[in-house]
């Protein structure tokens, strides 16, 4: 029970980080996934899920009021669900976890829109009083609180859904090599499509290949 409470608190922190405070990048899937796994004592598995989901969000630019899938809470939920399932993080289980997270972040993205609309109402009902600065601060804290509660709900419910899906995936007859190949092909396709966001192959191709080489060297060393 303590683990689920901690997961809810982490989900709230991740949700708030993506919108208001402290905005120190813990809402990135790489970090939030590791935190979600850490809650249940499996940070490595959580980091694996976070790394894969981070690939899908390299090209996401959350600027201003842009609408986009919310990868932070989804990664935290997916990693937590995989960790609490207590199964080895084999390729089939990871594949199911990632696929479910990609679907779940679409839902969490919609909840971000709903939260923004609620925050608009909080601001609209504000009327300047004798101490407008303090009243404005209270409204801001209320808006952050709304996002925190939203983060708790979507993270815990997503983790429960992932837990059930991973348990079912344990009986999946697919070979691990098939699941690993699916993850690799999908990740390569996303990276290839993302390259255009940063200037295209002609301008960033060498830098991209250098980054891949450095990453492979780090993997080989570790």
Characteristic key phrases:
mainly alpha; globular
Secondary structure blueprint with pairings:
Elements (H helix, E strand, L loop, with lengths): L1 H16 L11 H11 L3 H14 L14 H15 L5 H34 L7 H38 L6 H19 L6 H21 L1
Tell me what you see in this structure.
With about 220 residues, this protein is mostly helical. It has one domain. Helices cover about 75% and strands about 0% of the residues. The chain is built from 8 helices and no strands. It has helices at about 1-15, 30-40, 45-55, 70-85, 90-125, 130-170, 175-195, 200-220. α2 (about 30-40) runs antiparallel to α3 (about 45-55) and α4 (about 70-85) packs across α6. The longest helix is centred in the last third of the chain and has 38 residues, at about 130-170.
SS-based class: mainly alpha
Number of strands: 0
| Biggest sheet character | none
The proportion of residues in beta strands is: under 5%
The H/E string reads: HHHHHHHH
As a percent range, the share of helical residues equals over 70%
Q: Residue ranges: pLDDT <50 for 5 or more in a row?
A: none
Task: State the end-to-end CA separation.
Answer: 34 Å
Mean pLDDT: 79
Spatial extent as radius of gyration: 19 Å
Count of the domains: 1
Q: How many helical elements?
A: 8
Global shape:
globular
Give a short synopsis of this structure:
The mean pLDDT is 79. This protein has one domain. It is mostly helical and 222 residues long.
């Amino acid at each position: 029970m303590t683990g689920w409470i901690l997961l809810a608190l982490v989900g709230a922190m991740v949700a708030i980080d993506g919108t208001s405070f402290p905005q120190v990048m813990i809402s990135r899937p790489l970090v939030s996934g590791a935190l979600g796994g850490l809650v249940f004592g499996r940070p490595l598995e959580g980091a694996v899920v976070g790394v894969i989901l981070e690939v899908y969000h390299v090209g996401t630019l959350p600027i201003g009021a842009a609408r986009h899938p919310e990868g932070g809470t989804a990664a935290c939920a997916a990693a937590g669900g995989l960790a609490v399932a207590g199964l080895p993080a084999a390729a089939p289980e990871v594949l199911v976890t990632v696929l479910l997270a990609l679907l779940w972040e679409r839902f969490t993205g919609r909840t971000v829109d709903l939260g923004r609309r609620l925050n608009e109402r909080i601001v609209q009902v504000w009327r300047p009083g004798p101490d407008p600065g303090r009243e404005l601060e209270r409204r801001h804290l209320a808006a952050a609180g709304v996002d925190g509660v939203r983060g708790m709900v979507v993270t815990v419910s997503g983790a429960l859904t992932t837990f059930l899906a991973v348990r079912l995936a344990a009986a999946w007859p697919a070979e691990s090599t098939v699941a690993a190949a699916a993850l690799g092909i999908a990740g390569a396709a996303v990276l290839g499509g993302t390259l255009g966001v940063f200037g295209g192959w002609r301008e960033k191709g060498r830098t991209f290949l250098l980054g891949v080489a450095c990453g492979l060297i780090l993997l080989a060393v570790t």
